[in-house]
Every structure is written in C-alpha cells, then in structure tokens.
C-alpha cells in the first residue's frame, strides 16, 4: 500500500504531539515532518511535497491561509485544518480543504477525517493514472507519430545517427547544443526549443532554459530550496534546475510518486 506522506503544522507542542500520536496508529500514513510555525511549513511543504497536511490556522508568524496563498506551493496538497476557532470553517472550504477539525475533537472524529482524506487522495491518483494510461494507449494506436527517433550529427565529415533513447541530456551552448550520450558528447547547431518540440515530452524534461534531460537517466532529485532542484544523473553529473521550470518538474515528481506506488 502506498503511504500518504503527511506533514503536521501547529504552534502548540501538545497539539502537534497528539496529532502525531493518532497518525502513528494509521498504517497508510507516513509522517514526513512537524512544523511549529508558518515559515517552517513553507519550507517543508516545498521540500517534502506532502500528500496531506494537518494545518493550524492561527500561528504567530503566518496564518494557515497565508501559507496556502504562496504561489510556490501550488498545486497544493490535501489540507485538513485543525483549529480552536470555528469562524474560519467557510473560508477553509473555499481553499478546498478536505476537512476541518475543531478543537477539542475526539479520536473517532480525527480518524474519520484521515479516512476521508485517504479516499480523496486515491481518487485524484486514480484519475491521474487513468489519464496517463489513455495517453499511452493513444500513442500506441497512432504508432510513433512525428516524434524524433534519431538525431543526425556530423562527425569527421560523416553523418552519424544518434538514437534519442541514448541521449542522457542536452545542454545549450550559444547557438549550439551539446548532446550527451553514454559514449560521448556531440555538438550540433540547433536551438533547444526546436529539439524539445520534436522529442517525446513524456521522456524528456526541460529543467532549465539551457537543459533538457532524459528522465530514464535520472538517479535522484533533491530539493535545494527556492523552487530549485538538483538532478543527480546516473553518470554522476549533477544538473541544477531553474525556478522557471518548477511546474514541469512538479508534474514529473508527482507522476514518479504515483508510478512507485503502483
């Protein structure tokens, strides 16, 4: 069973401890972190990309609503608000919270909220996987389509065909591109945008205005802060992303999590 990565945010230590204790009873929950204020919540939500967040509303630095308003966190995880104040209930559902726990709550009410969140998360993941399967079926029915299968490069006066599946990453260098394969790097005169439009976008990921990577050669992705990531490749190279491509990277990371959970 795929674990639901869960973050707990509350400025009261006892309140956090109780939530953690209750969550430890649920076998499909994996607690990825605890936060005592909004600033910590922002950092850990961006770093760990949790599926579910238990979020206090009234905190000394940022309110729960102010945390969720930060654009860098979008798309948002599922949220269960935990608060002693009932006047925020309507606003909570305006930001698509899956539940609203009013302190003091009992164990049964808490576990019902967790189960409701689990169903909503599963529905979302089922929908994403269905969409991917339909795209794969469509691609199969239409063959390879117009996607580029080989790159033509010149080497010592002769033309060499490079299979795109062998490309680890492509790096822009002025008006040229360095095409890196397991054996060597080829230099071609072309723009990265032009190559990207011809390649399979389910295989190649743009992480920087000058970098396009083959996802089959990614070993690990680490969050570096400020919506930037380090892509550790299987050949030992580390490639840095830029903030401009955070949405594409987030989609890739979400899809990878779903694949691992199947």
- CATH topology of the largest domain, which one? Rossmann fold
H and E string: EHEHEHEHEHEEEEEHEEEEEH
Tell me what portion of residues adopts beta-strand conformation: 25-35%
Overall, the morphology is elongated
Q: How many beta-strand segments?
A: 15
Q: How many structural domains does the protein architecture include?
A: 2
Describe the structure.
The N and C termini lie close together (8 Å). The longest helix has 35 residues. The strands form 4 sheets. A 5-stranded parallel sheet has the order 2-1-3-4-5, sandwiched between helices. Strands 10-9-8-12-11 form a 5-stranded antiparallel sheet. A 3-stranded antiparallel sheet has the order 13-14-15. With 262 residues, it is of the alpha/beta class. The chain is built from 7 helices and 15 strands. It folds into 2 domains: 128 residues, Rossmann fold; 112 residues, OB fold (Dihydrolipoamide Acetyltransferase, E2P) (Beta Barrel).
